[in-house]
Amino acid sequence: MSRLLIATNNRGKLIELRNIFQGLPCEIVSPADIGIDLEVEETGSIFEENAILKSVAFARKSGLLALADDSGLEVKALGGKPGVLSARYAGTDATDTDRVKFLLSQMLDVPLEKRQARFRSVIAITDPNDWHTELCSGECPGIITFEPRGLNGFGYDPIFYLPQLSKTMAELSREVKNSISHRGQAARNAIPILKNLLNIHKFT
Ligand code: IMP
Fold first, then answer.
1. Closest ligand 1 atom, CA of 177?
2. How does residue 201 score in pLDDT terms, banded at 50, 70 and 90?
3. Residue ID of nearest Cα to ligand 1 atom 11
4. C-alpha of residue 201 to centroid of ligand 1, in Å
5. What confidence tens digit (pLDDT) does each residue in 126-146 have?
6. How far is CA 179 from CA 3, 8, 176, 184, in A?
7. What's the domain range around 24?
8. pLDDT tens digits for 53-85?
9. How far apart are CA 80 and CA 46, in angstroms?
10. pTM of the model as a whole
11. What is the number of domains present in the chain?
């Protein structure tokens, strides 16, 4: 059976993507599953660039069909920040809790009606046979809360409120998050591309 490498060291992303791709005719593996320890420097200024950097690097290292997600939070009142710097917003050694605290500290004076934000995800898929890379994307609008709520998900989920569900992203089950999230949309857009590639080649 072909293998698909989910090119991420982020446990939260891995769990969500495994869940969405579970029906595909391939074995889904993580870098840790196949003994790859690779940290790709995210030097791009847009999600697309960083997603490509990661999927190409992991496809080269593994020889497998590789799929990478680059994603982040864009907050209107902060001029689109943290954006591509979402993972590094509170410093390189910061935890999810530190990042949430830091973001809220930047928005102390922003009233509810000006707290619009969106999550964005760009997925890159690299075929190691010809290095061709395909892109898919998704986005999800919401509101930044004044304090964290909920224990599920990861990253900025506890402060990302979805008015249509009256819940933060961290109060949703994995299935419901995947059905509405930026990554869920991008991943569903990736399914026909993956099916086509898995049909043409064997990736082992
Ligand atoms: P990167 O794609 O590895 O650069 O990291 C993306 C960062 O954006 C994560 O570390 C999170 O801080 C944030 N992020 C991306 N997607 C989500 C999500 O679904 N929920 C919460 N935070 C997210």
1. 19
2. confident
3. 155
4. 31
5. 999 999 999 999 999 999 999
6. 25, 21, 5, 6
7. 3-200
8. 999 999 999 999 999 999 999 999 999 999 999
9. 12
10. 0.96
11. 1
